[in-house]
Amino acid sequence: MDEKVQLISDGDGLAVIGNRAVVERFLVSEGLSSEDLGLHRLGATLGTAAGCAQAGSQIAASSGCWVKLTEESAQLVTKYGLRTSSKTGLSTGVLRGSNGQIRGFVQFVKTPGSLLTSPAMLAGAAGIMAQLAMQQAMEEITDYLATIDEKIDDVLRAQKDAMLADMIGVDLVIEEAMTVREHVGRVSEVTWSKVQATSMIIARTQAYALRQLDALAEKLEHKAKIGDLAKASKEAESKVMEWLAVLARCFQLQDAIAVLELDRVLEASPDELDEHRLALKVARHKRLELISQSAEHLMARIEAAAGIANTKVLLHPTASRAVVHSSNRVATAVVDFYRRLGIERGRQSLEARRWVDAATEVKDKALETGAEGVDTARRLGNETLHRAISVTGRLSSGIAEQTLRQRSNDEEDLRQQ
Fold this sequence. Notes:
alpha+beta, 3 domains, 13 helices
């Protein structure tokens, strides 16, 4: 038995290829769950191409599994020191072993017929890996849409805008193409012609949803009164979920088109598959950045609104609390949306400042000020008292002296008489 496994990583997933039993032992030893890579598709498509016959026969006798790169599985790339190609962006290597054990170091073989030495086969494997990664992302989005209150179909059907209504038709066309692909195992020219024109509708719908998020952010930005801010925050809370759902569905359908597109290129122009895969990866990343920018703008405005509300909680306790709570719900929705689409961003929930806390703080300041006032009054009072006593003393002395002088004068007048 050939005790070796070939490893390929594209940054989104890890392919483990080799004898079925060896592959299974390797996955168990690393504690990894996987799904079938579908290598038979490469054997049928590329097996007769020039220079691929030997690699094709090797693929026919091999088993391939795909592992989604998580924080744990991604460590394998570092653990085994896979070598990364600057041209393809793929990290590859071969692990060898004996007696059922895979050794902990990588060999970089140049044996003719190896999958890793056949550019066409390697590109084909990478193309399938990209498809599996996007299908995994599509499942994540499906789960996301199932957990939110407003289902995407309900949102789209409720819209009077013809452009959004067109998304329902696009959805049906792409789902039909994915079903045909699953049963036939390929994407024919006829199937591709049906979905090829749907990209524009999806792009227009995505742009429309992004504009709606931007409009919500602008409304928050121009509100100064706490009452208006509370109203705008409540509207944002109810609308953000809907437009995030539309964006998620757009992204899911765009991934589905990319999966179909890679199949079509694999069959029609296999020598262009690797370049096409890399181009799709760049385009996908740009879509994520575009969505992230609008969401970040909205998040910044809703957080600013919560900050303003917290400063006015004493005078407007109900409205201020409503603004912060709406902010937290919007932020939670955006973070969940990010997680499902694979956008990295961390955020802690803003905490609504309780009216009691604010009132206590004001009371403490008042008491502090009051205490200072009492001290001042006491000090001034004492000074005044001392001055009063002094003045009274002087007045008393003056009156006494005057009385004595008057009495002396009266007695002198009597003697003279």
